[in-house]
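Backbone-to-sequence.
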């Protein structure tokens, strides 16, 4: 939020630096960057085993760095979106009036611009959640996600894959993991659609209703279009 709003408000050198940073991050495949970061953490844990004596501490540290690297690689889309919205908001009358009255840039960005872009933040947060769930499942499945001792969708699917080679084949554990992950992602996507419809005035089909006698309400009738005069 801070980088996107600052890039759109200050423009110039600040905008160039922020655009260079998120363009560079976008040019690197996110899966490779996440895998490299997790492997570096794993090597650090193995070489400093005395600092992490228990399995729980090692698993928690690996989970923490996985969350950090997912955040580092997933903020660029929101920053680009907020930059474009801030470029539009900074040209509006109330922002220019605040600048004319000598209000500080920090106050304008926090009180006027940040509050008017919160709907984009909420929508992006809900919509990116399903993508992060799928990313964690894929990374844990290939062994570069959370610790194998922790329960997650990726470790459950990986363990269920091994059960398929048994005789008789155990398929219900894999089906359960896929089903619950599908239900979670589908539920979050439905919530994202509802949040988007609630915050986007262009998609909200709202019409004012006029009160009348008897406690009931009625929608006002649309004015009829006047006919063009005969030539």
């Amino acid at each position: 939020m801070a980088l996107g709003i600052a890039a759109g408000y200050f423009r110039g050198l600040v905008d160039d630096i922020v655009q260079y940073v998120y363009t560079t991050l976008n040019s690197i495949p996110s899966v490779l960057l996440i895998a490299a970061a997790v492997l570096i953490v794993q090597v650090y844990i193995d070489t400093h085993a005395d600092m992490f004596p228990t399995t729980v501490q090692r698993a928690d540290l690996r989970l923490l760095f996985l969350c950090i690297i997912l955040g580092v690689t997933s903020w660029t889309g929101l920053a680009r979106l907020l930059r474009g919205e801030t470029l539009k908001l900074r040209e509006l009358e109330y922002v220019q009036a605040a600048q004319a009255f000598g209000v500080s840039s920090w106050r304008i960005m926090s009180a006027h611009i940040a509050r008017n872009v919160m709907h984009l933040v909420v929508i992006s947060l809900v919509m990116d959640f399903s993508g992060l769930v799928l990313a964690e499942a894929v990374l844990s499945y290939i062994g570069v996600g959370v610790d194998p001792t922790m329960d997650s969708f990726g470790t459950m699917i990986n363990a269920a894959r091994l059960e398929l080679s048994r005789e008789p084949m155990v398929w219900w554990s894999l089906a359960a993991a896929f089903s619950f992950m599908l239900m979670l992602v589908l539920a979050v996507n439905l919530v994202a659609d509802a949040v988007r419809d609630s915050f986007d005035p262009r998609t909200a089909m709202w019409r004012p209703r006029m009160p009348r006698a008897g406690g009931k309400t009625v929608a006002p009738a649309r004015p009829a279009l006047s006919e063009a005069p005969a030539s």
